[in-house]
């Protein structure tokens, strides 16, 4: 049966004629191309041109057949002529003879037209501007593809001239229009499952079934088209028609894809691109095979370009098309993703256009369902961080937040993505896989937990969730699992607020068990070292040590069992990391007065002081520093023992002194070494002579001078270093009975050095040490200050006056004094500077300054003249100020002693001055009632001098 062309009410005659005109132009160009190239073109080129021309002619015939009958206005002759020409051109068949002459009944008229056109205006040779790299089904270029590109070229030219152009969907209908028999009489749409009734009429199965349902169980059912009664409701599939429609759809889809590809390549306008993308999206939604055709047609690289297109509607449509193409699972999704610019898609999540953001997110959500693509998405810099931010910004865009959360859940299939999430603040996936995952997953998550930097706001939450699982992993027999667990626990314990959480989880007993008892053969990891480091981290957090149990028997951390084991493990041959952790543990224990006694006792019993001294110069520097800090803390309790051990150790104390006096930048080791030498008992002559023999004093003085010039900001340890250096100088003032020490103090004028330090430093500790040094030196002034020699003059010489100047006598010490030789504070002009120290807020500084001033009121000096000298500098006002500002009994005792000396030896003037202080009596009464014995006695004596209390018959024989 001959198929008739359908009349489509939506067709536009003008559009058909425009398309026909474009085809004629193409045919003219091809004819001219044949004429110009007959002598030079190869057979292949000629055959190609002929094939293209044949396609153009047939297209013209198809366009003629589409002209509706209404367009002829009942002119039967014209309609017959057009129909005849349509049939003739659709059946055109060109052959190429040996002389390369085209023979056809239609060709000659076109030649004439072409020649006439060429006489008016030469037509340039048309070149293929759009090279299409696809898997061609044949070696010969497809005629339809040529027509598509030629059409779009003409459309581009029309657009440039401002003329109207036919839309893409309309043009696509002209490729191969559907036949009338394709349409269902009921739905007026092309059928998908055509079935034929007994009446011979074909319908869409769903449509005719619905028609039958309207009749219900009625016996009389009529055919919708014929109106005749149907004797049977049997539906027979029209297989030939169904096959024909399917074939037509396949051809139609292929041509539409080619048209869309050409439109994307040309991209002369946003509307053209948008129509092409929309058409491709429609094809892909209807049929999954179309997705394969789109991918094979080389369209994906073209689409990627439009992700950065200026028109946002185009960008949104391209994202939706990519999403449609990526819906399929398996390799097809990965093929799309390989062509897709994933970083560009992620950047579009920040677009100011909401539809673009949503489309980009939905595309990422589909891509994230692939294991391979999970890793690829996560590897894009900033991708996971952006998704996390969107997940928590529900108030800005709830839909986007929901889809971002789903995408992140998909990305969890990649361990690296989980790590990136944790690094960017989303820690829950890592914790979930650590707690609920397999052994391999737990090991990997624990390893990540030991590497990433966790924000302070998540630290405690991580510790609470992860620590029970990690502690259980430590009990595992798998060394890899244990290693990852130790790594994570070490990282968690380094954050001090986590200490209480870890203790509550039972980590103390487990770590001590790992240190003392548990052994795993051939384990590459040293679990002792790891456990000791974790325990040190926890103890350094400042927890209550006395209540911590070390085993199930109830033994405490301060027990002999624990301390003896710790000290036993200390060994110069042990791993440095283990020694460092053990010393850190001992340092923590020495912070408590209760546990300090136990530590000192254990070290004395085991003679571990020799081991500690050996570690002083055992790299790395961190171990040396920690060891010296521990020795410094122990020096108050066993200082002479440590010095004896130091002097008996080979190379010591020379190495320690060299460390202090060495050149170069001030390091932590230098600072703590100086502090150690300054803290050990000052009266130890052996160490002082060792320092003297190494000529340390001039180097120390030079270092002090350098720091004073450059300031303490040159190094973070400069202040501590300066304090240590001054403390070493103070050592020499305690052994001045030794001639060498006395010579040293005089030679380097230590009195002036300490006096200058009182003024030129901002360090309270340096001021305190300087005041102590001055006090020690001043105690020697009485002995060193001698009356000037009396020279006996002969009678002859007595007749002549002496020209020698008289030697001045110190009013305090009664002899010839100087700051260098007798260490006189008055001559050193140190008194005012010591009084200035009374205003210091630090009790230790004030107490040291009071001790230095007290040396000027000792019974061995001329107290009356000393009081007169101190009164001139208003010393009593400074001392009364100390009593007002401070309530420490040590300061009261020293202050009261000086006040009592002024009252008892200073006369009425001093008594009047002191009695004018209105607050002093109340302070004295308080000290009398609540002070210790010496303080109470001093307060009582002062009150008696002030007539606030009757004279006690008790005789006091008190010295400060």
TrEMBL record:
<feature type="domain" description="U-box">
    <location>
        <begin position="177"/>
        <end position="255"/>
    </location>
</feature>
<dbReference type="InterPro" id="IPR003613">
    <property type="entry name" value="Ubox_domain"/>
</dbReference>
<keyword id="KW-0677">Repeat</keyword>
<dbReference type="InterPro" id="IPR052608">
    <property type="entry name" value="U-box_domain_protein"/>
</dbReference>
<comment type="pathway">
    <text>Protein modification; protein ubiquitination.</text>
</comment>
<dbReference type="InterPro" id="IPR000225">
    <property type="entry name" value="Armadillo"/>
</dbReference>
<keyword id="KW-0808">Transferase</keyword>
<dbReference type="GO" id="GO:0016567">
    <property type="term" value="P:protein ubiquitination"/>
</dbReference>
<dbReference type="InterPro" id="IPR011989">
    <property type="entry name" value="ARM-like"/>
</dbReference>
<dbReference type="GO" id="GO:0061630">
    <property type="term" value="F:ubiquitin protein ligase activity"/>
</dbReference>
<dbReference type="InterPro" id="IPR016024">
    <property type="entry name" value="ARM-type_fold"/>
</dbReference>
<dbReference type="Pfam" id="PF04564">
    <property type="entry name" value="U-box"/>
</dbReference>
<protein>
    <recommendedName>
        <fullName>RING-type E3 ubiquitin transferase</fullName>
        <ecNumber>2.3.2.27</ecNumber>
    </recommendedName>
</protein>
<dbReference type="InterPro" id="IPR045210">
    <property type="entry name" value="RING-Ubox_PUB"/>
</dbReference>
<dbReference type="InterPro" id="IPR013083">
    <property type="entry name" value="Znf_RING/FYVE/PHD"/>
</dbReference>
């Amino acid at each position: 049966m001959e198929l008739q062309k359908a009349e489509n009410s939506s067709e536009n005659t003008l559009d058909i004629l425009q398309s026909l005109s474009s085809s004629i132009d193409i045919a003219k160009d091809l004819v001219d191309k044949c004429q110009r190239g007959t002598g030079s073109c190869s057979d292949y080129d000629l055959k190609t041109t002929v094939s293209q021309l044949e396609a153009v002619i047939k297209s013209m015939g198809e366009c003629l057949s589409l002209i509706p009958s209404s367009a002829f206005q009942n002119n039967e002759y014209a309609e017959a002529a057009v129909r005849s020409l349509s049939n003739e051109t659709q059946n055109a068949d060109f052959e190429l003879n040996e002389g390369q002459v085209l023979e056809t009944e239609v060709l000659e008229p076109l030649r004439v037209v072409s020649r006439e056109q060429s006489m008016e205006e030469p037509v340039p040779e048309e070149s293929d501007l759009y090279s299409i790299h696809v898997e061609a089904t044949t070696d010969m270029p497809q005629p339809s593809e040529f027509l598509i590109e030629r059409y779009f070229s003409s459309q581009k030219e029309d657009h440039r001239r401002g003329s109207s152009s036919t839309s893409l969907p309309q043009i696509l209908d002209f490729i191969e229009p559907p036949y009338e028999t394709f349409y269902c009489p009921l739905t007026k749409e092309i059928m998908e499952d055509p079935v034929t009734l007994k009446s011979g009429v074909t319908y869409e199965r769903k449509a005719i079934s619905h028609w039958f349902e309207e009749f219900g169980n009625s016996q009389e059912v009529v055919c919708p088209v014929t109106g005749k009664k149907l004797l049977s409701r049997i539906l027979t599939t029209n297989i030939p028609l169904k096959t024909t429609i399917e074939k037509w759809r396949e051809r139609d889809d292929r041509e539409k894809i080619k048209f869309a590809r050409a439109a994307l390549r040309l991209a002369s306008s946003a509307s053209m691109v948008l129509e092409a993308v929309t058409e491709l999206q429609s094809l892909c939604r209807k049929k999954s095979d179309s997705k394969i055709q789109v991918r094979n047609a080389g369209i994906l690289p073209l689409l990627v370009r439009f992700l950065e297109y200026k028109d946002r509607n185009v960008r949104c449509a391209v994202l939706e098309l990519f999403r449609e193409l990526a819906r399929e699972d398996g390799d097809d999704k990965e093929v799309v993703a390989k062509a897709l610019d994933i970083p560009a898609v992620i950047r579009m999540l920040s677009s100011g256009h909401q539809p673009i953001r949503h489309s980009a997110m939905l595309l990422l959500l589909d891509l994230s369902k692939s294991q391979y693509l999970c890793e690829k998405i996560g590897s894009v810099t900033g991708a996971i961080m952006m998704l996390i931010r969107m997940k928590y910004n529900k108030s800005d865009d709830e839909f986007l937040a929901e889809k971002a959360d789903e995408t992140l859940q998909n990305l969890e299939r990649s361990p690296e993505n989980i790590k990136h999430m944790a690094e960017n603040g989303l820690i829950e996936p890592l914790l979930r896989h650590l707690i609920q995952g397999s052994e391999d997953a737990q090991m990997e998550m624990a390893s990540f937990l030991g590497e990433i930097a966790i924000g302070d706001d998540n630290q405690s939450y991580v510790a609470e969730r992860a620590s029970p699982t990690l502690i259980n992993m430590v009990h595992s027999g798998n060394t890899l699992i244990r290693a990852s667990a130790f790594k994570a626990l070490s990282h968690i314990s380094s954050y001090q607020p986590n200490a209480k959480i870890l203790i509550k989880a039972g980590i103390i007993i487990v770590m001590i068990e790992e240190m003392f008892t548990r052994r795993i053969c051939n384990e590459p990891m040293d679990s002792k070292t790891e456990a000791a480091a974790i325990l040190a981290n926890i103890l350094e957090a400042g927890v209550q040590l006395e209540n911590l149990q070390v085993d199930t028997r109830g033994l405490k951390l301060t027990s002999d069992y624990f301390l003896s084991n710790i000290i036993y493990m200390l060994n110069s041959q042990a791993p440095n990391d283990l020694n460092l952790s053990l010393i850190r543990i001992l340092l923590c224990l020495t912070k408590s007065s209760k546990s300090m006694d136990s530590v000192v006792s254990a070290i004395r019993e085991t003679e571990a002081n020799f081991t500690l001294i050996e570690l002083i110069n055992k790299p790395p520097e961190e171990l040396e520093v920690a060891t010296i800090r521990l020795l410094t803390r122990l020096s108050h309790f066993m200082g002479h023992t440590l010095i004896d051990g130091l002097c008996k150790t080979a190379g010591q104390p020379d190495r320690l002194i060299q460390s202090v006096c060495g050149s170069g930048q001030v390091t932590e080791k230098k600072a703590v070494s100086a502090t150690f030498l300054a803290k050990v008992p000052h009266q130890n002559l052996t160490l002082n002579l060792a320092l003297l023999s190494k000529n340390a004093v001039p180097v120390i003085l030079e270092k002090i001078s350098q720091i004073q010039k450059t300031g303490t900001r040159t190094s973070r340890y400069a202040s501590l270093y300066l304090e240590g250096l001054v403390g070493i100088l103070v050592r020499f003032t305690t052994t001045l009975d030794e001639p060498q020490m006395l010579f040293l103090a005089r030679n380097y004028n230590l009195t002036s050095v300490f006096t200058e330090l009182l003024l030129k430093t901002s360090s309270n500790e340096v001021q305190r040490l300087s005041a102590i040094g001055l006090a020690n030196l001043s105690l020697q002034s009485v002995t060193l200050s001698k009356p000037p020699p009396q020279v006996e003059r002969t009678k002859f010489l007595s007749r002549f006056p002496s020209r020698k100047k008289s030697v001045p006598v110190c009013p305090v010490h009664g002899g010839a004094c100087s700051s260098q030789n007798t260490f006189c504070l008055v001559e050193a002009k140190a008194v005012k500077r010591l009084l200035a120290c009374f205003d210091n807020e630090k009790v230790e500084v004030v107490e040291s300054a009071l001790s230095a001033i007290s040396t000027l009121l000792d019974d061995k000096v001329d107290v009356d003249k000393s009081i007169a000298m101190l009164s001139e500098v208003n010393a009593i006002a400074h001392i009364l100020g100390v009593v007002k500002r401070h309530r420490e009994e040590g300061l009261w005792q020293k202050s009261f002693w000086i006040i009592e000396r002024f009252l008892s030896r200073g006369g009425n003037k001093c008594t009047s001055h002191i009695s004018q202080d209105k607050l002093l009596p109340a302070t004295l009464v308080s000290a009398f009632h609540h002070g210790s014995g010496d303080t109470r006695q001093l307060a009582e004596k002062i009150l008696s001098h002030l007539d606030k209390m009757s004279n006690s018959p008790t005789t006091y024989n008190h010295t400060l």
